């Protein structure tokens, strides 16, 4: 199970999700913290900028910083209005109300002044600290570089710092808000990761499920069960793979059937001549037959039959494997046809068949294997003679058509029924199933002829009308490509 593709893919996918969630959480947390701190600092600076003129007015009226802590602790918050006669009015008078209005406007934008406020005088001494931590401490002026200066007539009389301007920490309210944001990021990231894992596992299952079916079917084929098919559920790459597998399985089944049929045909074809040879030899050994030239000739004829069958099988095997060697050279096709006709004239005369080979026009030189083309012509002519009755005619013609030469052998034989015509070039196929190997050849002649013609880059075909005759023709290119 640990070697399952689904488990391995799911493990990798889970690892990617975990890494992705961690990166997302860390980056979002860092980004949120950084931006939030920047936002808080911006608000604090805005509050300090709003306080600076108020503190300058306070110093201008009092000529010192005494009571500034009380002043800061009584700073009105947004949404409240100072009442007449309040302590602020008593301390600052009505002239401060314009500045407080400015402060209210700033506070509406940046929020209430609930952060720690520290005020320094011009020498760097802390004169006010709402956090009650550093009042009276002396600081070097370099510590005040980030503060907002308090000026009167372009003269710096002090510096004010608010919240995160003092130290880079958040107040409890800001910390709570940031923690809630981080928690939301974590929950969201985990939820997204879990959903990705669920949907990813379903997708991986859909991908690996047909692969498991293909694996099981392949193992069945490997064990000899060739009739295997897998269901096709999609039109994607997996679906095309399943269709290709089904076609391969069908091809294997057909090839196995053809192999079995071929072995059966070979065994059948070999049995007849071997039986004759065995019977004649046993008769000679037992004295039933005399050791005469006629009896020996009978055995010799059957050995020639066997030799022809073996030679045909060898040529067919080489042709189907694409290893049939062709000795190409320019040949005179008209002369080759004439020689084949001359060699078969005697057999045609014995059967009372007219062999017409004289209507051959002048043909250009052809780049081909003369021996193999002779073999094709011989096979087609002997096949025509085999199915042509006494008094019939076999006519050979050749003509040039569009950079090809077409050779036709037309007979007036018994013809072939339409349903059998597509199979005439199959090995061991005979249109008349009652005929035997000893009288009608091995059943491989047309198959070998087809392989030879196609090896030359040509085509071969057959046409027939039952009771009228048949025409076997093949086409060869004039130029070798």
Characteristic terms for this protein:
481 residues, alpha+beta, five-stranded mixed beta sheet, four-stranded antiparallel beta sheet, 11 strands, rod-shaped
How does this structure look, described?
- A hairpin with a 3-residue loop joins β10 and β11 (469-477).
- Helix content is 55%, strand content 13%.
- The longest helix has 58 residues, at 5-62.
- It starts with a helix and ends with a strand.
- The chain is built from eleven helices and eleven strands.
> Would you count the extended β strands for me?
11
User: What is the element string, with H for helices and E for strands?
Assistant: HHHHEEEEHHHEHEEHEEHHEE
| Strands side by side in the biggest sheet | 6-8-9-11-10
The end-to-end distance, rounded to whole angstroms, is 55 Å
Individual helix count: 11
Largest sheet descriptor: 5 strands, mixed
Overall mean pLDDT score?
80
Are there runs of 5+ residues with pLDDT below 50, and where?
Answer: 82-97, 106-112, 433-440
Write down the overall geometry.
rod-shaped
What is the radius of gyration? 53 Å
Structural class: alpha+beta
Question: How large is the share of residues in beta strands?
Answer: 5-15%
- Helical content stands at 40-55%
